[in-house]
Design a protein that fits this description.
alpha+beta, Beta-galactosidase, Chain A, domain 5, Immunoglobulin-like, 10-stranded antiparallel sheet, 30% strand, globular, binds alpha-D-galactopyranose
Length: 756
């Protein structure tokens, strides 16, 4: 052991040049990699934090078990490409100009990047042994959140083109182990996003993907792998990953009978090719992965902090998300100046801060068959333009927002009649319409310019604070005749479309720095770490029924934080579900209202206004607190849900509890909380009245953190009502000498003993 090897490793990147290895150390984890004498870059460890470099093995090739189990397959290569005796999961496949399809990369050098904010970085340079092709493996560390952010850059240093047929972002290797592991993914459909799927890892490959040109409603580019807790461990260790890409993607999880678990992923190889011309580079999206020693909630909280601190656009990331009203469910396409003003006046009475006019405001948009592409107010609905409506909204004290769907065109539109060639199509095939619309080719500069001008004109002419940016159908017939004719590779269009969307959003934000954007694709179809670099909020689902929402929101929250999770109280469930329950569900995220307020009674309006006032007081905890799901609606078949939000200082917390059915009546068990300070004393305060006859009336309203975590919050609901829910706030209070405190909300008792 040399001197360097015995030095305790602090968070950051620790290099041992003599052994060609690096340790990427975060607060709670170590990710180590090294170079074998053959020049292969391999993983040496990923998991609990190690103390010194001496803890790491030397980087060397594994033994060949048999001629059918070659070392190149069993070794944990950081970026295995198709070539040689590699039969495991692959990150890349290339074709050289002479037709050779075998990749043989060798390590050249490493570069440590200066620490920026809480991120530090390492880049490894690899080069093909024969061809002028360089690959950069980039690693960034989020020290506090135990995350490694990886991407790859391909560089053609020669004179002839090289064709990329698979160019994933990274390969991740979990520790070799026979421990039983559970894979969690998110799957869905329209109006049913983010359903949690859990399955044991067995030998073979699990595949999740999108081939629709967007992130997709049907699967999310996120996963977690949990190992059963080892003896002495309380929570399972979790490896989790999330891909920052809003187009076609693919993630493959392979487990083999030797106990090897590999995850690879990136831009999908489906209908993908990229012609890397001489001197050009191709950069993959970021693939973010982390290790949590405190279970799925720990994984969730790490990703939430990362999104809030690093991903979201800085202009809005520190502001509270406003309470919005959206007119879609109230008016659908039946939009008029007067009708919207009426809704705005009612919304303002509730305390709404942002009024958003949804679909139906632009040229000849009376149904979903016309108008997409013609982004000007319809003079029949807005004879004086949008100005008077916006002025009224401002007078009512609200900001104004507007719905757009820039990537789309209806064949029945001025835009399509002028530029039929701007939509994706193959010349000999029909253009499949979905929702009566076609997709514009955002890989084309002229299309992007048109859209920039149309949207920029709107944003310049009118005072618009917020765009709801929708995308309501997948891409089909992905033809691009002009590009092909110019010698281009038409299969690049999937990637060029996504880059085009990013470029358009980036340009609009650069011109309108205070603009906020909501990402929508028929609900949560475009919710990922890359779209959130340029949007501030996501429309989580078109399904606003509170029962469905609890399930959808639990899944969504595994990958993304509450401040981006748009949640409205609408008329869905209005007849069966109490308004309090509906508000509690929507208050779990960025609260909005979407019901037809014209039909709401005076009592409903008053109650809604009081919930919105409460939300404004507690939203800092919801939007920026640590979120823990204490009871999973997925695990309890939608019967229960409980969510806790805790301040960073752990001196305040909120607990939301939901109980859908009570077929057997009776009570429910105490709810054990987490994340509190064991020795602190918390005042427990129901926000707004609890449902009838709550046992809280009989219970001390003061408990220690230790008691709340060990024995739990007592059962607060005890009745036969369906859809019962509550929201309580915990606030740390100072205990006077003698260990007893006065309760403020218990006039009957003089003082109550502190329960430790
Ligand atoms: C999509 C969105 C809805 C609404 C409609 C308008 O379905 O998800 O919220 O904006 O489009 O057409």
């Amino acid at each position: 052991m040399n001197d360097l090897s015995s030095v305790m490793m602090e968070p950051g990147i620790v290099a041992d040049q003599s052994r060609s290895l690096w340790a990427l150390v975060t607060e709670h984890s170590t990710y180590a990699l090294g170079v074998t004498k053959e020049g292969l870059v391999i993983n040496l460890h990923w998991g609990p934090r190690l103390a010194t470099l001496a803890d790491l093995p030397d980087p060397c090739l594994a033994l060949t078990h048999s001629s059918h189990d070659p070392a190149l397959t069993s070794i944990a290569e950081e970026y295995p490409g198709f070539g040689g005796l590699r039969y495991g999961e692959l990150a890349a496949q290339v074709v050289f100009a002479d037709g050779v399809r075998d990749l043989d990369l060798c390590y050249e050098r490493a570069e440590l990047l200066p620490v920026k904010a809480s991120l530090s970085g390492l880049t490894l340079y690899l080069r093909d042994r024969h061809y002028p092709l360089t690959l950069l493996l980039r690693y960034q560390l989020d020290l506090a959140n135990d995350l490694i952010i990886r991407s790859a850059v391909w560089r053609n240093e020669g004179d002839e083109p090289i064709r990329l047929e698979r160019a994933f972002s990274a390969a991740w290797h979990l520790p070799h182990s026979f421990a039983s592991r559970t894979l969690t993914t998110l799957a869905g459909q329209w109006a049913g996003e983010s359903q949690i799927q859990r399955r044991p890892l067995v030998a073979g490959t699990a595949l999740i993907e999108s081939r629709r040109g967007i992130t997709s409603l049907n699967a999310a580019p996120w996963l977690a792998i949990e190992s059963e807790p080892m003896p002495g461990q309380l929570a399972p260790e979790v490896y989790f990953a999330s891909l920052a890409w809003s187009g076609n993607w693919m993630i493959r999880v392979n487990y083999d009978v030797t106990g090897k678990t590999t995850v690879v992923g990136g831009i999908s190889e489906h209908d993908f090719a990229w012609q890397l011309a001489a001197g050009e580079t191709f950069t993959t999206p970021d693939f973010v992965a982390g290790f949590a020693d405190d279970g799925l909630n720990g994984a969730r909280q790490r990703l939430h902090r990362y999104v809030r601190e690093t991903v979201l656009p800085t202009s809005q990331a520190l502001q509270p998300r406003p309470v919005l009203y959206n007119s879609w469910e109230a008016t659908t396409f039946d939009v008029s100046e007067q009708g919207q003003i009426e809704l705005a006046e009612l919304a303002a009475r509730l305390g709404v801060e942002l009024f958003v006019v949804d679909d139906g405001w632009f040229m000849r948009r009376v149904s979903d068959t016309t108008g997409l592409g013609d982004w000007r107010p319809d003079p029949r609905k807005f004879p004086r333009g949008l100005g008077p409506l916006i002025e009224r909204v401002h007078d009512l004290g609200m900001a104004f927002g507007l719905w757009v769907e820039p990537e789309m065109v209806n064949p029945d539109s001025e835009l399509y009649r002028a530029h039929p060639d701007w939509a994706y199509a193959f010349p000999t095939r029909a253009r499949s319409e979905a929702r009566n619309q076609l997709v514009l080719n955002l890989g084309r500069e002229d299309v992007r310019n048109y859209l920039f001008e149309a949207l920029n004109r709107l944003l310049t002419e009118y005072s618009i604070a917020y765009l709801k940016w929708d995308m309501n159908r997948p891409i089909s017939e992905p033809g691009w005749a002009d590009y092909l004719a110019q010698g281009g590779e038409a299969r690049e269009l999937w990637v060029r479309h996504t880059h085009g969307v990013y470029a358009l959003m980036d340009a609009l934000r650069a011109h309108h720095p205070s603009l906020s954007i909501e990402s929508c694709a028929s609900g949560g179809g475009r919710a990922d770490l890359a779209i959130l670099r340029r949007t501030d909020q996501v429309w989580t689902s078109d399904n606003t029924h509170p029962e469905a929402r609890l399930l959808i929101q639990e899944g969504f929250s595994l990958a993304l934080p509450a401040r981006v999770m748009g949640a409205w109280v609408t008329d869905a469930g209005r007849r069966q579900v109490p308004l309090a329950f509906r508000f509690h569900v929507a208050m779990l995220g960025a609260l909005g209202v979407g019901g037809n307020l014209i039909h709401w009674s005076a009592e409903e309006m008053d109650e809604a206004a009081s919930w919105i006032a409460i939300y404004k007081q507690i939203r800092h905890l919801v939007q920026d607190g640590e979120q823990s799901w204490l009871l999973s609606p997925h695990a309890t078949h939608g019967q229960f849900a409980a969510v806790q939000y805790t301040s960073q200082a752990r001196d305040q917390a909120l607990v939301f509890f939901f109980w859908r059915d009570q077929v057997f009546g009776g009570s429910h068990p105490p709810l054990r909380l987490c994340h509190l300070k064991p020795n602190a004393v918390y005042r427990i305060e129901p926000l707004r009245a609890l449902p009838t006859a709550s046992p809280l009336q009989e219970y001390p309203a003061v408990l220690s953190g230790a008691a709340l975590m060990a024995t739990g919050l007592p059962p607060l609901l005890d009745n036969w009502q369906t859809h019962a829910s509550y929201l309580v706030k915990l606030t740390e209070i100072t205990v006077p000498p003698g260990g007893s405190v006065r309760t403020e909300n218990k006039p009957r008792a003089e003082s109550l003993p502190v329960v430790y």
